[in-house]
Amino acid sequence: MDRTALVTGISGQDGSYLAELLLEKGYRVHGLIRRASSFNTDRIDHLYQDPHEEDVRLTLHYGDLTDGSQLARLIRAINPDEIYNLAAQSHVAVSFDQPQYTGNVGALGTVRLLEAIRETGIDTRLYQAGTSEMFGASPPPQHEDTPFRPRSPYAAAKLYAYWVVDNYREGYGMYAVNGILFNHESPRRHATFVTRKVTRAVARIIAGKDEKVYLGNLDAERDWGHARDYVRAMWMMLQQDTPRDFVIGTGESHTIRELCEVAFGRVGLDWQSFVEVDPRYFRPVEVERLQADPSRANSLLGWKPEVGFEELIEEMVAADLQAEGLTLDAARAVVAEKFTAGRR
Ligand code: NDP
Ligand code: GDR
Fold first, then answer.
1. Residue of 22, 76, 206, 297 with fewest CB within 10 Å of its CB?
2. How far lies 220's CA from each of 1, 3, 159, in Å?
3. Is 127 tagged catalytic?
């Protein structure tokens, strides 16, 4: 039997990988996209189907998590078996500049979606995109029972969403779960997040477009995995008999410094010559150390990441080099010619 899923945030990094996974599994996928004055569907263009084709598997709908009545109409019309709520203003630093909007989408948007499900009375399963940022100042390793100590408007909004999902599960018997996902990246990551900012800088420096990259706190530690592995965990969470929240991460953490070392090192460059600290990228309060304890997901879901930290960064460097028309060998040749000691 055909299964149907609705994905909010389908045009984002995770939405694109999740749409691929669900289509591969034979789902009909409906995605919510925002109307914008320019195209914002680059990450899913390869999946697009003309609505005039027969047996269309992917359908996009305009909508916004700030518009609750639209959500209810859509849910009634689609009657999805599964809903993945990935839409959010997802940038932590930006949430300090736009705290109300971040809360409107991340926190209230989630309760709008829950209310739409409740009012329409459909039988569905909801995945809510929770985050390791909710642990904030709690020391690692963080697991499902670690106290939440959020340190940004983004994290506070996600924590509100976490608790309403928990309330609706308990109060109304909904199948609704929180994934508490640690950082996950890919070549599709937006270039304002630190991994992609660094891997893109490597490629642009070699291509002669930039000379340096300016970063903020180099001491922060993150548990980075590959987005493709993490969307698999989202799907697995909705296939369980009992709805339950799960922490998803690799269990390994690295500093921003180490990230720079691996990314620049891949092409034979010493990162210290190209990275400068600019205090404008410091946050009013920072989450210093995140490292998952994913034991519950390992044992109950049987989930394990397939891609480790170095492989992830290498894939991202390769993709950014490719975007500049360079192979890894060509990049190393440029480094040998232009960036050898004494010639810079
Ligand atoms: P992205 O920022 O890449 O994608 C966010 C998506 O949300 C985009 O499709 C965006 O649309 C959409 N969106 C933003 N605001 C609205 C709105 N008001 N109404 C409808 N859609 C909106 O995030 P990721 O894919 O990286 O993350 C997916 C989710 O998982 C997010 O909720 C994020 O907070 C959470 N998360 C992410 C982690 C990570 O490391 N990537 C870790 C833990 C949680 P548009 O393309 O138009 O901007
Ligand atoms: P994060 O990711 O805040 O963890 O949120 P980000 O890549 O933005 O920052 C990670 C760490 O790197 C430090 N940092 C910088 N960050 C950015 N963006 N730009 C810089 O120049 C820079 N220099 C240092 C940050 O201070 C921070 O410590 C991501 C998002 O995807 C969230 O939506 C998600 O919930 C969490 O991951 C888990």
1. 76
2. 47, 41, 21
3. no
E strand map for the chain: 4-8, 28-33, 58-62, 82-85, 125-131, 175-181, 184-185, 213-215, 221-222, 225-226, 246-248, 254-255, 275-277
Query: In angstroms, what CA-CA distances link 31 with 92, 98, 131?
Result: 24, 25, 21
C-beta of residue 197 within 8 angstroms of C-beta of residue 191: yes
Q: 172: which residues sit within 8 A by CB, 6+ positions away?
A: 118
Residue 120: in which H helix or E strand, if any?
helix 109-120
In the beta sheet, which residues pair with residue 226? 185
The b-or-e profile of 287-306 (16+ CB within 10 A means b, else e) is bbbbbbbbebbeeebebebe
Other beta carbons within 10 Å of 319: 17
Measure the CA–CA gap between 97 and 82, rounded to whole angstroms: 33
C-alpha of 125 from chain center? 20
Q: Phi and psi of 316, rounded to 5°?
A: -70, -40
Q: Give the Cα separation of 207 and 252 in Å (integer).
A: 32
For residue 96 and ligand 2, the question of a CB distance below 6 A is answered with no
DSSP state string for 301-318: I----SS-HHHHHHHHHH
Complex confidence, ipTM: 0.99
Identify the bridge partners of residue 179 per DSSP, sorted by sequence position: 129, 246
Which two structure tokens, joined as six digits, stand for 94?
Answer: 């930006």
Identify residue 160 by its one-letter amino acid code. Y
Residue pair 146/170 in contact (Cβ under 8 Å)? The answer is no
CA 92 / ligand 2 centre spacing (Å): 7
pTM of the model: 0.98
pLDDT in tens, 12-67: 999 999 999 999 999 999 999 999 999 999 999 999 988 898 889 999 999 999 99
Q: How far is the CA of 66 from the centre of ligand 1 (A)?
A: 14
